[in-house]
Amino acid sequence: MTSLDPRAPLVLDTRELGRRPGSQREVTRSAPAPADLGIEVLSVPEGSPVELDLRLEAVMEGVLVTGTARAVVEGECTRCLEPIRDEIEVTFQELFVYDDTRHGARDDSDEDDETSRLEDDLLDLEPLLRDAVVLALPFQPLCQPDCPGLCPECGARLADDPDHGHQAAVDPRWAALAELKEDLGPS
Ligand SMILES: [Zn+2]
Ligand SMILES: [Zn+2]
Asked: How remote is the CA of residue 149 from the centroid of ligand 1, in Å?
C-alpha cells in the first residue's frame, strides 16, 4: 500500500486534533475533481473545483468527518442526448479509525473489511466523496423531468418540436393509396 501524500487536495491531516476526543476543526477548501467522479452519463469534469466544507472531530476510536461537497456535473440526457449541466450538493459522514492496530497482531481476515482508516493520522477523502457523488446522481439523467426524447422516425428532439409528426411527410403515392383504401371502405 502506498502512503498518502499530505499535500494532495483530498488528503486531510488530523494531527492538529491531537487525538483528544472532542477536539474539532473546520476545514473549507476547494479541490480539483479527480478523474471519473460520477457515473458514465453524468460526472464532475476532471479538474473542476469541488467546494468542500468539512468538520473533523476527534472521537475515542478515530476521527469523525462530516461534510458537504458542491460541484458542477456535466453529461447528457439519456432520452434526447441534449447536454446537461447541473450543480450537485452532497453530504457525507464517515468515521476514520486510528491505524494503530494496522501493523500489529491483526489476522489477515481483517484486511478486507470496509472500515475507513487513518494512515499516519492522514485521511483520504476521495473514496468518501466518490461514493457520495455516485449516490446523489440519477441513474438516467434527463434534460427536463418529462423529456419526450427523440422521434423514432427521424431522430428530431421532440422537446424542441412538441407537435412533431410525420403524417404530412408521407410519400404522396402512399397517401393516394391510403385515400383509395378509405374510399373502398371496410370489405
Ligand atoms: Zn432530454
Ligand atoms: Zn420525426
From this structure: 5
Among the bound ligands, name the one nearest to the CA of residue 160.
1
CA distance 137 to 17: 33
Give the separation between CA 98 and CA 52, rounded to whole angstroms. Answer: 23
- Ligand minimally distant from the alpha carbon of residue 146: 1
Name the CA radius of gyration of the chain, rounded.
Answer: 27
Rounded to an integer, the average pLDDT of 12-23 is 94
Burial status of residue 172 (CB atoms within 10 A of its CB: 0-12, 13-18, 19 or more): exposed
More confident residue, 158 or 114: 158
Distance (Å) from CA 121 to ligand 2 centroid: 60
Distance, C-alpha 88 to centroid of its chain: 8
- The predicted structure's pLDDT at residue 100: 76
pLDDT given at position 181: 67
Residue 77, Cβ density class (10 Å: 0-12 exposed, 13-18 middle, ≥19 buried)? buried
